[in-house]
Each structure stands twice: as C-alpha cells, then as structure tokens.
Design brief:
The chain is of the alpha/beta class. About 25% of the residues lie in helices and about 20% in strands. It binds ligand TNX.
C-alpha cells in the first residue's frame, strides 16, 4: 500500500443525461496528480444522489452502501500510477440527476488501517450545460418607482398614510404596559441581531423619534394599528406579539426609506391597520440531514419574525441523525448526532470522514424557544416516528424485534429504519422521550412524523406479524409477510394505504397520540398519519405535502390541515429546472413567482376551508450542502410564503412583492454574483 503524502488527489464527477437513445451515465474520475503511485485504497463518496443497489457499476465494485454513502473498491491489485485517472461509470441511480449539487460533494480514500485521506471535490458537471453554477440568493433590485412608496412585507390589510417626512434618525420606544415593555425589549434585540449597525433603535440624544406603545382592548392577538404624525408614532396592540408586528412594520418602512430613498419614504400622517389572514404561518427546518448551530437557529428566528411568521416546526430526528439531548437515553446523541468514517452513521449528504454533526442541549433548546417566543413564534419539535428512525435504532437497538429477519428499504435507501410498533419497549422509550420534550416546548404541540413508512416495514418481524394478525386478520398478515426483502418505492415513497404496514402504523399512532393528549398536547403528523383514521381529529393536525388535492380530501374528512405541498412549498426544490440551479427536483420546481401566486386552498369547498390551519414552507436539508445554497433556495421564497399567509388574497400583488423583497434579510447574507 502506498498513499502519496501530497494531497494532489482530486475527484471529478460528470453527469451525462440520456441522449440519442443512449442511457444516462454518472462518471467519477479519481485523478492522481501527485508523483507517487497509489494502491490499497477504496473510494468513499456521499452527496444527495444515490447509487442504486440494482445498478451497473463499471470500473469498480460497490463494497458498502448506506443511502447516499457509497464505497467503491478498485479491481484486485489495482495501482493508480502518478498522473493517472481511475474512472468509475455508474449506470444505475435511484433517480436521475437534474442539478449541480446532485452528485458527490464529499469524497475520501479509506485505507485498510482505518485512516482516511480527504479529496478535493468539484461540483458535478454535466455534458449538457456549461453555465456558471448558481449559489447565493438571487438579487431582486429595488426599482426607482416601485408600485407602492412604503417597503412592507407582508403587505398590511389597510395602508392609509398621507404626507411624507424627513427620515427619522431612529426610534426610541416608550412603553408602560408589561406586554408593551416586553415587546420593546424583544424588538430591540431583534434589530440588534439583524441590523446591528443601522441604529434603528437609538436615544433622543441621537435624534430618535418617539414611538408610543399603547395597549388597547379589542384588537386580535396578532393585530396592530399604527398612527403617524410629524412628531411621533403610536402603536396600538393588545398583546406583545401585536406590538412586535407593529414595530416590525415601522422598522421595515424606515429601512426601505433609508436604504432606497429614491424609491420609498417615511410617512408623516395617516394610519396602518393590520392583522393576518391565517393563524399558522410556518417554517419547517430539517436539522437532521445537516446540522445548524444554535446561533444559526436564533438568527433564523429573527428572520421569521421580520416576515411575521409565527410557527417553527423543528425536525429534530431522521434516519441521518438525532439532534436533541434526552436525559434518559444519552446514546441518542452520543451515537445518533455524529457521522464519520467508521461510525455507526457514515458520512452522508456531503459530510466529511472526520466526526461531524452536533445536537441541541436542553439549555440551547430553552434559549431558542424563549428567544422565538419573544417574537410570537411558537416552536414545535418533530420526532419522526415510526419511520425515518435509522439513527435512533443505532442508539437504541431494542426498538427492533430481535428476531426480525430480512430487510426492507426506505425511499431514501435506509434499511430497516422503522421502530417496531408491536413492542412494549417502543412505547416505553417513546413516551419517555416525549415526556422530556413536553417539558421543553411550552406550545404543547408535538409533531410525530409518520411519513414514508416503507410498504415492507416489519414484514420480517414475528412480533409485528403476530400483532397484525390480531389487528387485521390472517390474510393481511400473510400478505404482509410476503413483502419481506421485496424492494418497493423505486418511484418515490410507497403509498401504504390499506397495507399491513398501514395497520401497524395506525395503531401505533393512535396510542402515541392518546399519550400526548393525556399530557395536554396536540399531535402533529405528516399526511400519512391519517391512514386508518385512528388519530383524534380534534387533538391533531396534519401537514399535507403530496399535493393540494390530498390536502382538500383530508380537510373534507375532518382533519385540520397545514398546507405545504412539495411542488411549491418545499424550499429544497430547485427554483428552476436548469442544471446550474441547486436543489432537488423530485416534487418539481417552484420559482418565487410560482410560490407567491400559488393558492393554497385552490379548489377547496367552504366546508374544507374551515379545516385550514394555515400554511408552511418546508426546508429539507439534503440539498443544503453549503450555506450559499441555503440562501439561494430559501430567499426570497420564504417571504413569498409569508405574504401568502398574512395578506388577503385580493391584496396580493407579485409586482409589488418583487419590487420590495430586495429589502428583506437573508440568513447568511450570501448573494449570487
Ligand atoms: C420527503 S415529504 C420527506 C423527507 C425528505 C423530503 C425531501 C416528507 C414528509 N418526507 O424525508 O427530506 O422529501 O424533499
């Protein structure tokens, strides 16, 4: 074995789409640019794309695979001479590549002694496009003559301002009522966080204009009223959140006029009266596929507040990791929060061979929840069960039937990733975990996932089959046993309706939901939680992701619905079909205008509309392999979602939104140049 010390080793990958009757190919080229020969190694890669188990691979054999982690073994006795290239051609993938970040975005050599050598890795190129790759948020220039002279997103219910005044230097907040004082403190922290050098809040000695916060009766919990005069501004609200929203509107008007004086002004008279159209205006963030530190989450909370979004759905566990400290089961974070070469969880989705990852301590969770709460944002955790549990099962193997035989695979390519609903141990563990979470999240809403359980789940578990026989009879149990080792979901997540897996999941969810209800909690689930109609519709809600028709149908059956269809509200979907745009594509593409103009209740009957809780955007993180991709995918689509949730449909205007949105903050501040 010999490995050059100089790291002149590079991996280049190319996607050749199907063309002229030829099938696609994904080509990996390991280049040895050093002056020494290389032998006795294997090549490990990860990135969103997955090499299919049934795939044809030329130039290598696949020696290990877990979801998108693949280890390629060179032919026996292989030597990569100095200056030479090892070429691997993959002719079967779980899905075809469409975007530059689909291929491997981390790679390393694994050596027999357990050590690794990281490789320089370029984004995957395609033979069909040579366009510069896009990263960083798209720029929305503020025009000289925007359709409205005030920069406010989401646009308020009633704007009746008259004359303009010279721009105030900043504001001093005057509050007496405790709710108003609390709002003044959280707003001050908010602008300090987002725009620290701008001096929006300042003293009278520095020329500040007073803003008087008056608590009034009779306004809705999120409503506010602003009155402008040449000398002062008044904010009326009935709650802390109402005051914060009023102050955000003042801050937005001020920033627009300050940064774009040719386009916007600050009013000297008149009023703004405002409240939201929808009660649930949310963002879901998957912190399992990529980890985001506490500081990132807190900044995200500030960005949500600036968009008047009020729900944060925090996806804390998935196959790829477990991210929240649980006292009763320290193994969850000791094992489940870290990926790396040789660990129970290998590098995935572009993570490195070195041990990387992380989790939120209970203190960090409390800090985030209280920070968000100051802006009226309710935080709800998701622990995704009974599927998407590969990481949890690495930490707590007792959640699997010890006599389970064979394997089933999830749509993301994880084997045997569902905790077993026929084991008492499962309920004991999950109820303990949930009890600890209930302590941390005062909103008392806990999301339990329930998405994408594979059709074959538990088909080799004697315990599960016995339970299924009791629940649904011999025939269904026997049919289920036959699914063992049958690979399904080759064209997307399985529809498990009516299957043995659905029966078992339904019973499991009913029990967990009843437990949460006994603790005074509302249960959230993805739409699959409706299988079998076993959860209590009065104490639950569903996030409907497949399409609007499913959402309407579930609302018609009496479920409370948060609308988040993958085709438009999944922010991991690329904005456009082009290769140079990053993101995923399985549900389609949605550019900001499509998202903005989308009607979340299009085609719903009045009765169905009564079940609408609101809308949310979902950030899944498989594609978020760098933060410039994050900014590109999330902004300005997040603000488009915010305006859909807040502004009445009749008052929406893409032309206005497009002209104003360039004034809204990004999370990382990375723009495409
Ligand atoms: C589907 S839709 C998932 C997630 C993935 C996402 C990627 C749903 C509830 N589950 O596990 O991250 O697609 O877009």
């Amino acid at each position: 074995m010999s490995i050059p010390r100089s790291l002149a080793l590079r991996l280049e990958t190319t996607w050749n789409p199907p063309a002229d009757g030829k099938e696609f190919s994904y080509v990996l080229r390991l280049k040895n640019l050093s002056s020494e020969q290389l032998s006795g190694f294997s090549l490990c890669v990860s990135g969103p794309g997955r090499v299919d188990p049934a795939g044809i691979v030329e130039g290598a054999t696949v020696s290990k695979r877990l979801s998108n982690f693949t280890e390629f073994q060179p032919p026996d006795g292989f030597v990569l001479a100095a200056g030479d290239t090892w070429t691997i051609t993959v002719r079967a993938l779980s899905w075809q590549f469409r975007h530059w970040n689909d291929g491997a975005n981390s790679a390393y050599l694994a050596l027999p002694d357990g050590t690794t050598v990281s490789l320089g890795t370029e984004p995957t190129r395609t033979s069909s496009s040579n366009a510069p790759l896009k990263r960083g948020a798209e720029i929305y220039p503020v025009p000289a003559n925007p359709p409205v002279p005030l920069s406010i997103i989401p646009w308020p219910n009633r704007v009746a301002v008259s004359s303009r005044r010279p721009l105030p230097a900043g504001f001093v907040l005057k509050a007496i009522a405790p709710e108003a004082q609390a709002a003044a403190a959280s707003f001050t922290a908010l602008v300090e966080h987002l725009f620290s050098a701008e001096g929006l809040i300042r003293s009278e000695a520095e020329g500040a204009v007073p803003v008087d916060l008056h608590q009034v009766e009779g306004l809705g919990a999120e409503a506010y009223r602003l009155a402008f005069s040449p000398e002062a501004i008044t904010v009326e609200a009935s709650t802390q959140t109402g005051f914060v929203y009023g102050l955000v509107t003042i801050g937005q008007i001020w920033r627009g006029a300050r940064l774009h004086p040719q386009a916007f002004y600050f009013p000297a008279g008149g009023e703004i009266v405002d409240e939201p159209a929808m009660g649930w205006r949310g963002l879901h963030l998957d912190v399992a596929r990529q980890f985001y530190g506490t500081a990132e989450i807190k900044k995200l909370m500030a960005v949500l507040a600036w968009n008047k979004l009020n729900r944060f759905h925090w996806h804390l566990s998935d196959d790829e990791s477990w991210r929240v400290e649980i006292d009763a089961y320290p193994a969850l974070t000791e094992i489940g929060a870290w990926r790396g070469h040789g660990l129970p969880l290998p590098p995935l989705l572009g993570s490195s061979p070195a041990r990387t990852g992380g989790y939120y301590t209970k203190a960090a969770v409390r800090d985030i929840v209280s920070y968000a709460g100051g802006f009226g944002i309710e935080v709800l955790p998701e622990i995704d069960i009974p599927g998407h549990c590969y990481a949890m099962l690495q930490a707590i193997p007792e959640l699997r039937d010890p006599n389970e035989a064979g394997s089933y695979y999830s749509v993301q390519g994880f084997p045997d990733n569902c905790i077993n609903p026929a084991r008492e141990k499962t309920y004991e563990v999950i109820e303990t975990i949930l009890s600890e979470l209930i302590e941390l999240f005062p909103f008392k809403t806990i999301h339990i996932g329930a998405d994408e359980v594979p059709l074959g789940a538990w088909s080799g578990s004697p315990e599960a089959l016995a339970r299924l026989r009791e629940l649904a009879g011999d025939e269904i149990a026997q049919a289920h046993a036959k699914r063992l080792n049958v690979i399904t979901n080759t064209h997307g997540a399985d529809d498990i309706h009516g299957s043995g897996a659905a029966f078992l999941q339904a019973e499991f969810l009913e029990r967990i939901q009843a437990f949460l209800a006994s603790k005074g909690c509302v249960t959230g689930g993805w739409e699959e939680a409706a299988h079998g109609d076993r959860i209590d519709k009065d104490k639950s809600y569903l996030c409907s992701w497949r399409n609007v028709e499913v959402a309407a149908e579930l609302a018609g059956r009496g479920y409370e619905i948060v609308v988040c269809p993958g085709q438009v509200y999944y922010l991991d979907m690329a904005m456009r079909p082009d290769w140079d745009e990053p993101g995923a594509s399985w549900a389609g593409h949605s550019d900001p205008e499509k998202l903005y103009t989308f009607d979340p209740v299009g085609g719903w009957t009045d009765a169905q509309k009564e079940k609408l809780r609101g809308i949310q955007a979902c950030i899944w993180s498989e594609s978020m392999t760098d933060r410039a991709i994050f900014d590109r995918l999330v902004f300005p689509r997040l603000s488009a979602l915010a305006e859909t949730g807040w502004t009445k449909p009749s008052a929406k205007s893409w032309e206005r939104f497009k002209a104003l949105v360039g004034t809204m903050p990004l999370l990382y501040g990375l723009y495409q140049f």
